[in-house]
Each structure stands twice: as structure tokens, then as C-alpha cells.
Write a structure and sequence with these properties.
Strands 1-2-3-5-4 form a 5-stranded mixed beta barrel. The chain is α+β, with helices and mostly antiparallel strands. α1 crosses α2, α6 crosses α8 and α7 packs across α8. The protein has 3 domains: 57 residues, Nucleic acid-binding proteins (OB fold (Dihydrolipoamide Acetyltransferase, E2P)); 72 residues, DNA polymerase, domain 1 (Orthogonal Bundle), CATH 1.10.150.20; 49 residues. Helix content is 39%, strand content 22%. The chain starts with a strand and ends with a helix.
Length: 188
């Protein structure tokens, strides 16, 4: 999996940039290609998206944008291209604020987001984002890596949240949190 790229911008498209990393040029889809300029040295936080019909990289200049993308694709019915489109119309801070205030009108104005998707985004993400970052609930750590591992194992966001809420020791590592969450999730 490609988690990041550091190189020189050699091309800018309508919804992508080309980045030269040691004489290998990658095309990376990004919500704001206009933020880059040719010849600029940059670092991108990337997500490798592989589906039955597609294979591409999505990239973001900040961790906050990358996390917002992660959260959006965790929402039922929101795919990577929809999440990329939605991020063209907002910032991580404004997205978090709209979700927390349940501002359906704002979310519906984002490209590719209709009324159902807006409601689902609020339902799935309210309480998880503050300024584009995971919100520790009751002072507990967010265990973001544990969350990703459980997601890759096929568990739904709500199941993962419920399991992580039941972890009593706040000092667990992400690996220990995964094991504790699995014990909870596998109870009959």
C-alpha cells in the first residue's frame, strides 16, 4: 500500500496532479489540484484505491484532509470518488463543524452528496470529528490504527465504536485495543 509520496509536481490536471518521485511519475487524484504549482516539492498523504473497475491514488497535502477522506469513505454509501468530490467543496474544519451541528443543508451543497448521503454522514460521523481529527470520547484515546485494522477485517463503523467504548484500560496500545475489541465483537 502506498501511504505517501514526496516529490516534485510535474503536471496539473482538472482533478489530479502528476508527481515525480525519483524518476517515477504518479498520477494522484486530489480535491484541489489548483493548490499546487509545477516544479513545487511536496509531500502527499495518499490512499491507494483498488476496486473491481478502478485502481488509482488519492492524495492530500495535509493529514487532516486525509483523515476527512478516511472518515467519509467509512460512511455507508459513500465511495472514494464521492468522498474526493465532496472534499472539493469544503475543508476538514467546515466538514467537522457541519457534521457536529447536523447541518444537512451544508452537506447537501457538497458535490456528489444528496439528502440521504448527508443524513448518513451525520449518523455515522457525529461525535468522531473535531477540526478534522478523531475526538477522544470521555478522554479516552481514539485508537485510530485499531479502528482501521478492524475496518479491514470487515467490521462496520458502529460495531467498532461500540467495541472500543467497552475498553476499560485507556493505556492500551492499538494492538491491544484490537484484541480487546475482537473479544467484545465475538461474544455470542
Amino acid at each position: 500500500m502506498i501511504k505517501g509520496l514526496k516529490g516534485t509536481i510535474v503536471g496539473i490536471g482538472l482533478n489530479s496532479i502528476d508527481i515525480d518521485v525519483h524518476d517515477v511519475v504518479y498520477e494522484v487524484l486530489t480535491p484541489h489540484p489548483d493548490r499546487f504549482s509545477i516544479g513545487e516539492e511536496t509531500t502527499l498523504y495518499t490512499h491507494e484505491v483498488i476496486t473491481q473497475d478502478d485502481h488509482y491514488l488519492a492524495g492530500f497535502p495535509s493529514k487532516e484532509e486525509s483523515q476527512s477522506f478516511d472518515y467519509l469513505i467509512s460512511v455507508k454509501g459513500v465511495g472514494p470518488k464521492t468522498a474526493l468530490n465532496a472534499l472539493t467543496g469544503t475543508t476538514p474544519e467546515l466538514l467537522a463543524k457541519a457534521i457536529e451541528s447536523e447541518d444537512v443543508r451544508y452537506l447537501k451543497k457538497l458535490p456528489g452528496i444528496g439528502p440521504k448521503a448527508a443524513q448518513q454522514i451525520i449518523l455515522d460521523l457525529k461525535g468522531k470529528l473535531v477540526s478534522g481529527e478523531a475526538t477522544p470520547q470521555n478522554g479516552a484515546p481514539s485508537h485510530e490504527q485499531a479502528r482501521q485494522v478492524l475496518k479491514q477485517m470487515g467490521y462496520k463503523s458502529k460495531e467498532i465504536d461500540d467495541a472500543l467504548k467497552h475498553i476499560e484500560d485507556p493505556n492500551l496500545t492499538d494492538q491491544q485495543a484490537v484484541l480487546a475489541a475482537l473479544k467484545f465483537l465475538r461474544k455470542p
